[in-house]
Amino acid sequence: MTSRKIEILVGLFVAAAIAAFFMLAMSVSNMSSYGAGDSYEIKARFDNIGGLKVRSPVAAGGVTIGRVTEIQYNSDTYEAVVSMTIEEQYNKFPVDTAASILTSGLLGEQFVGFEPGAEEDFLKNGDVIDLTQSALVLEQIIGQFLYSQSDDEKTE
Amino acid sequence: MSDILVKIRDLHFSRGDRKIFDGLSLDIPRKGITAIMGPSGTGKTTLLKLIGGQLTPDQGTIEVDGLNVHQLSTRKLFELRQRMGMLFQSGALLTDLSVFENVAYPLREHTKLSDAMIRHLVLLKLNAVGLRGAADLMPSELSGGMSRRVALARAIALDPMMIMYDEPFTGQDPISKGVLVSLISELNSALNICSIVVSHDVPDTLSISDHVHFISAGKIVESGSPETLENSKSAWTLQFIHGDADGPVPFHYPANPILDDLYMDGK
Amino acid sequence: MFGGLIDRIQYIGAETLRSFQRLGRASVFLLEVIASCADLVLKPTLLIKQLYSVGVQTLIIIVVAGLFVGMVMALQSYYALVDFGAEDSVGVMVALSLLRELGPVVTALLFAGRAGSALTAEIGLMKATEQLSGMEMMAVNPMRRIVAPRFMAGVISMPLLATIFSAVGVLGAYVVVVQLLGLDSGAFWSQPQNKVDLYLDIYNGLIKSVAFGFVASWIAVFEGYDCIPTSEGLGQATTRTVVHSSLAILFMDFILTALMFSK
Q1: Closest CA to A30 of A76, A67, A60
Q2: One domain for residues A25 and A76
Q3: Is A149 inside a domain boundary?
Q4: Looking at the complex, does the CB of residue C155 fall below 8 Å from at least one CB of chain A?
Q5: Domain check: are A102 and A130 in the same one?
Q6: Residues of chain A contacting C193 with CB distance shorter than 8 Å
Q7: Is the pLDDT of residue C184 over 90?
Q8: CA neighbor of C187 nearest in space, from C82, C72, C80, C89
Q9: Numbered residues of chain B with Cβ closer than 8 Å to any chain C Cβ
């Protein structure tokens, strides 16, 4: 086997591996949602984040506009502080935008949903959202439901 | 420049519990063919590896061209080895390279010669061993004798000051053996270098050597020119030269008297 | 009987010491190999030749294995998930299993069996036929010319092969689920795109395969270089390469998985 032929075959091998990597990165993983473009950071404080995780999506109107980058607990205010990266193209959220932790489907993963407000000013890099709604914890809902049921029975 | 190329002093070497050399001292002159002979298992090949610096002695020194082989840094040792050629028993050709590339290998590794120059040199060396026509063959297509001749061409590629031959005649048919014998002798006189031949093939080796050393049990038994050794008074030397079955080297491995062994159960 | 016990204990002690000695020798050997790898920048031809015999020649078995592993996994997860109406998740299930575990691990096991044993046999045979000794006597360091290119080729080939394995596996799953079982193609691709993370899953899978390639190549070249140069010793060395590499790969996979995905 000539060295030219070997070099060509090795070249093909490496090219095939690179092609395979791009196929995995582009069409199997969430790389496209990282976006190559710029982004800005927003923080939000929640009483309870439920099952939210780093890299959970941030959505507005059902469209993914960013991702959760960091979750911390502030032991002074007893609140969870969630940092999110939002793509630069979605930079027109009013400052009174509300953030709530929602669940996709009954048992699906949790994400942060944005509900735009009505103010003139827009959220900038580093701003903090104050209007938040915590995650609905299934056990609490069931507990509340049973409690209200028993209350109803009593009043009747 | 001294006449002695290889100077071995009080060499001790053992493999595991087995002592191979026990205070061996030897001088090998700068010119001519020196034969080192002895029965199988006396460590003749080991001696070559010690000279080449592939093994380290337990005690004693080996000097090649005034340099103590085992005190050299790796770089210096490699520089020294470029001036040594070694012909292995199997030829040790690189099996994934053609005959031509095998001979060109040391030139490509150690010189910056142009391709045309290398081609020129390789063909000359191959011509010297009579295998210019086999340049494009692969080592697997060569007979044992041809492999050794290619290896010989490779060993002389860098024009060394000495060539070590490890059992060059073993397992060769009479014709290949004759070719190798005359090649070794002719190359040595043409290049005017030092050749060290390790062998137990008595008549062929004696016919071409200038100096002969017999080794047994880790020591030199007798040294001299081939003529003096043929007329040696030593019973051991005579037994080795003539290949007698019994003598100072007994036919029987040390054992109890045979009658004791045979009638053991009847005791 | 008491003597037998003492013999047994002595034997275990001697074997333990021998294993440590071998490990020490292998570590020193590894350092030498890594130190010799710098040379390859000057002689890329040597590396390319080895990439061919280590990488390209292993490609066929990797592609075929990847295709069938992907197809089988797709079938199995389809039948398991269809009862819950969750067959849309077949894509993400296959993709995650391949990228995180099966891609690196199965590729590494096949690599140890195909390329690793061949490396050991080749280097061992060169030792047995005095080629390594011959090179040393030609003032050529066999570490640089023989061992380092093969080791590097192994380390480079493994992530490439694992990537191809995973990609082919996902394609195999696609063929089974979408073409044969009639699942919607959009559903097959959209779930992985949501759940598979470029960094956490793909990059960590690549890091795993580099680590496996490193260990498998190390074991293969060491066993070859260190073997007893007889046909029996060579056979034993080749067997040891496959067994030790496979065990090392599985053990390391556990450790790396625990480190990477523990959150």
Answers
A1: A67
A2: no
A3: no
A4: no
A5: yes
A6: 27-30, 32-33
A7: no
A8: C89
A9: 49, 52, 54, 78-79, 81-82, 84-86, 88-90, 92-95, 105-106, 109-110, 151, 154
Closest residue of chain B to C134, computed from CA coordinates: B92
Q: Is A31 on the interface with C (CB under 8 A)?
A: yes
Closest chain B residue to the Cα of C129, Cα to Cα? B92
Q: What is the pLDDT of residue A31?
A: 62
**Does a structural domain hold residue A148?**
no
pLDDT band at C164 (very low <50, low <70, confident <90, very high): very high
What sign for the dihedral angle of Cα C58, C59, C61, C62?
positive
ipTM above 0.85, yes or no: no
Rounded to the nearest angstrom, the minimum Cα separation between C140 and chain B is 7
Lowest mean pLDDT among A123-132, B171-180, B235-244, C57-66: B235-244
**Residue C22 predicted with pLDDT over 60:** yes
Tokens of C92: 């993400």
Whole domain around residue A46: which residue ranges?
A: 39-143
Contacts of B109 in chain C (CB under 8 A): 138-140
Whether residue A46 is found in the same domain as residue A117: yes
Please say if the pLDDT value at position A67 is more than 90.
no
A10 to chain C, any CB pair closer than 8 A? The answer is yes
Grade residue C236 by pLDDT with cuts at 50, 70 and 90: very high
How many domains does one find in chain A?
2
Q: Which amino acid is at B30?
A: R
pTM score over 0.90: no
Banded pLDDT at A66 (limits 50, 70, 90): confident
CA quadruple C159, C161, C164, C166: dihedral sign:
negative
A10 and A62, same domain (yes or no): no
Same-domain status, A84 and A25: no
Q: Is C173 on the interface with A (CB under 8 A)?
A: no
Cβ–Cβ < 8 Å for A85, A66 = yes
Q: Are strands B59-64 and B67-68 parallel, antiparallel or unpaired?
A: antiparallel
pLDDT of amino acid A105: 67
Q: Which two tokens stand for residue C208?
A: 């795993």
In a domain, A16, yes or no: yes
